[in-house]
Design goal:
Elements: E1 21-23, E2 26-30, E3 34-41, H1 46-56, E4 68-71, E5 74-80, E6 83-89, H2 90-104, E7 108-112, E8 117-123, H3 127-132, E9 148-154, E10 157-166, E11 169-177, H4 181-188
Antiparallel strand pairs: 1-2, 2-8, 3-6, 3-7, 4-5, 5-6, 8-11, 9-10, 10-11
């Protein structure tokens, strides 16, 4: 007999369930419905992948390094010369992820990261200040675009920080390997 495995939050027991937590002017919530993909351009295909991703995003030119954009509930970030990170939420976005996978399949290897990572959203007037305590990223750089993302370390924890604007305020989605959930929450407090 096959048992169905229920997906459990990486942060179960670490953050209060239900309403998002607040600390020091920062709203903290786990995005339990986050879907994550990593795209790596195949050899000799990075230029074509950049153009295909730009068309999917309905942009005239490819994303610049570390720049991000959103289309149809899918947030895509160029995090390296041959690498894109994709974050989507919910079932409606899952359909659009299928469309993205179809258009990139000849140009990239696609890696599903959803089960191995969790996403914490930090928002509020002090979100950048809280993140700045643990990372070397310049979160207050006026030259950065409104939407960007970068791999970094937060304390000793590997993380991907994705920033976008919501109602003219910065929102940070931080993707971290599930095995670091306890360490990340301990640092956050």
């Amino acid at each position: 007999m096959v048992e169905m495995i229920e997906r459990r939050s990486a942060l179960a027991g670490l953050l209060p369930m239900g309403a998002p937590a607040r600390t020091d002017g920062v709203r903290i919530e786990e995005l339990e419905d986050a879907l994550q993909l990593q795209l790596f351009a195949r050899n000799g295909k990075s230029g074509e992948l950049a153009r295909v991703v730009a068309r999917f995003l309905k942009r005239k030119k490819p994303l610049a390094p570390l720049e991000s954009a959103e289309q149809g509930g899918i947030f895509i970030c160029a995090v390296g010369p041959r690498e894109y990170w994709v974050l989507a939420r919910g079932r409606s976005s899952a359909k659009n992820l299928g469309a993205l996978e179809k258009v990139v399949k000849d140009h990239a290897s696609v890696f599903e990261q959803t089960d191995g990572r969790f996403v914490i959203r930090l928002s509020g007037p002090r979100a950048a200040d809280v993140l700045a305590r643990g990372t070397s990223l310049d979160l207050h750089d006026p030259e950065r675009p409104d939407a960007w993302g970068s791999h970094t370390l937060i304390e000793h924890i590997p993380a991907l920080v994705l920033r976008h604007m919501h109602k003219s305020a910065a929102v940070y989605n931080v993707s971290v390997p599930r095995s670091y959930a306890g360490s990340f929450v301990a640092w956050l407090r």
